[in-house]
Write a structure and sequence with these properties.
binds (dimethyl-lambda~4~-sulfanyl)acetic acid, two-stranded parallel ribbon, single chain, about 270 residues
Length: about 270
């Protein structure tokens, strides 16, 4: 039977996340690249997006939403990314650790740890799923660090703990960065002797804070594509310590029960 178009099914709405985020900028670009001028990108937050996904999924309703991996939603729901033949969302990319200028001199122990910090999507996934199952982020981080001695040892081998120096991290409430920032904070405090704080902020203040030196470091930079605009704006005032995770990706996704929607081009119908 002639089913209404997917646009009609979702009132031409893309369920978005936090305004200003790279994913929202890329999705606005995708709406241009794929001529989705009659669609609206709904601003929300990462938590708002997953709440709307949960409601739609439970009722097996159609929904088109912004997505990124690693994320617990791909463990919880049967989802699929829409093909992006124009590569608006780019190729799989990296999450980078970014330090303020001067950090190496001021906090050499923390700097060396942050320079070595790297883990996999599976590692992050363990922490994210524990948090999603109701564990406090600090507790989930402690559980992961205490359960992965070997990996943590690589990060801190030969480093002499400090005596209570303060350290400030910041992050945006994306489930991925809630996990990574809490693990880094836990290691700084419990293994390296810092009094470390993790400030939850929006994306603009996160980048501005580390660029103007109010924040010591972030582990939340999606590069080279998703956060390219922030890197262009602040990059020369920052110290990029490289990838803490590789092969991450973002894009548009739908539940797999939307069988006839497999590419962003299918939204034009
Ligand atoms: C974790 S999301 C890809 C971050 C963003 O959209 O800027």
């Amino acid at each position: 039977e002639n089913k209404p178009s997917v646009g009609k099914q979702v009132n031409y709405k893309i369920t978005g996340s936090d305004p200003g985020s790279g994913l929202m900028r890329l999705t606005a670009q995708a709406m241009e690249d794929y001529d989705l001028s009659n669609w609206t990108l709904m601003e929300s937050s990462a938590a708002g997006m997953t709440a709307q996904l949960d409601r739609a999924y439970k009722n097996k309703e159609p929904i088109v939403f912004v997505a990124w991996s690693p994320h617990w939603m791909f463990n919880t729901y049967d989802l699929k990314y829409l093909d992006d033949p124009k590569l608006t969302y780019g190729e799989p990319e990296e999450i980078h650790t970014i330090a303020r200028l001067g950090l190496k001199k001021d906090h050499p122990v923390a700097y060396e740890f942050l320079d070595r910090f790297n883990w996999t999507s599976d590692d992050m996934g363990e922490v994210m799923v524990d948090i999603q199952d109701g564990m406090e982020p600090e507790e989930a981080a402690a559980k992961w660090v205490n359960g992965h001695e070997g990996k943590v040892q690589e990060w801190i081998e030969g480093l002499t703990p400090v005596k209570g120096d303060s350290f400030i991290l910041s992050y945006v409430a994306w489930d991925s960065e809630l996990a990574s920032t809490n693990v880094v904070r836990y290691v700084l405090e419990e293994k390296l002797g810092y009094r470390a704080k993790a400030l939850q902020v929006e994306i603009g203040p996160m980048w501005l804070g580390v660029a103007n030196g109010d924040v010591d470091a972030i582990v939340a930079a999606w590069l080279p594509v998703t956060h390219s605009d922030y890197w262009e704006q602040y990059g020369e005032r920052l110290d990029d310590l490289g990838a803490n995770m590789v092969n991450v990706k973002s894009g548009l996704a739908v539940p797999s029960y939307m069988e006839d929607v497999n590419s962003i081009e299918d939204l034009q119908l």
